[in-house]
From TrEMBL:
Residues 179-298 form the Ketopantoate reductase C-terminal domain. This is 2-dehydropantoate 2-reductase. PANTHER family: 2-DEHYDROPANTOATE 2-REDUCTASE, PROBABLE 2-DEHYDROPANTOATE 2-REDUCTASE. NCBIfam families: apbA_panE, PRK06522.2-2. It is an enzyme of class 1 (oxidoreductase). Catalyzes the NADPH-dependent reduction of ketopantoate into pantoic acid. One of its GO terms (molecular function) is 2-dehydropantoate 2-reductase activity. It comes from the Bacteria. It comes from Desulfosarcina widdelii. The lineage of its organism: Bacteria, Pseudomonadati, Thermodesulfobacteriota, Desulfobacteria, Desulfobacterales.
Amino acid sequence: MKVCIFGAGGVGGYFGGRLAQAGIDVTFIARGAHLDAILADGLHVKSIDGDFVVHPAKATALPEAVGPVDVVLCCMKSWQVTEAADQMRALVGPQTLVIPLLNGVEAHDILARSLGAEHVLPGLCKLITMIDNPGHIRHAGAAPYLAFGEVDGRLSQRAQHVAQVFSEARGVSVHLSRNIMTQLWRKFMLIAPWSGIGALTRSPIGAIRSLPETRAMLMDSIREVYDVARAVGVPVEEKAIEDTMAFIDALPFEGTASMQRDIMAGRPSELNEQPGAVVRHGEKYNVPTPVNRLTYHSLLPQEHMAGKKLP
Ligand SMILES: NC(=O)C1=CN([C@@H]2O[C@H](COP(=O)(O)OP(=O)(O)OC[C@H]3O[C@@H](n4cnc5c(N)ncnc54)[C@H](OP(=O)(O)O)[C@@H]3O)[C@@H](O)[C@H]2O)C=CC1
Ligand SMILES: CC(C)(CO)C(=O)C(=O)O
């Protein structure tokens, strides 16, 4: 199976690295100093599950130099999807599957509009990784998990084949989902509130969940995302609110979300695709989202200063 990792950062570098380590034919789409370092010295992964190096690693900035592959794993930031989808066309042949692992609930639609819905299997991942230096990925926490599935929940042969090949990646649990849209929104119930309140308070999750004031904000924000999911028509059970809080209560005190880390470091972030998307969907479906609106609007000035054009 030929796999292309579009965006060889924290997520793409890790999962692509593990697939390459298992002997699967992986090409990384990367750019700049990161690409140069991967080509010169390989892709280095420092992981709580054991360090490894992919060397030589197949990597390029030019999808047209790769041509059609069996699977494209999309691992760029949410605000980079539209441009990436354009460049991705060269990787997509009649049988190619495109699996986004990004946070948020919109990437699969953008890809489907650009590449054709028949190519896209919505997906998600859980782990804590980042680029430490060009060519060097760090897996700092969480058991690596990835899930994907057909939008209609069928366990298609093509999806089963990908799941079977991906399960060769060491230490990665791969889940072929019968309800990927529910899983996406359940993750969104966690990540949009945590990212927004984490970035606004500049505090780790342990502090946010311990103080009654910020705990209440977090719970209200999670309920807003739940209400929006229901209004959109995604079957999420109310128990998901409790489960999300239980997950948050089990996180290490110092935990931060990736969008929060970007904002705290003054980098462009997924603000528009996380709390911003909750607000947009709320407006469309007439669901009040006051906490997400507060976090989104309060963080907008900094997002602009980080150089990001926003709608
Ligand atoms: N990191 C984490 O722990 C987790 C992240 N996620 C989600 O996964 C997604 C990816 O996050 P993460 O891996 O942290 O992001 P990173 O910024 O670490 O990685 C994205 C990579 O994609 C590259 N890229 C983007 N567009 C292109 C392009 N057109 N050509 C070549 N390279 C490109 C970026 O390069 P450049 O920097 O030059 O733009 C960057 O190296 C996000 O949606 C995030 O929310 C989900 C779970 C956990
Ligand atoms: C939930 C978490 C922390 C890990 O998957 C994440 O998705 C992120 O930091 O963006």
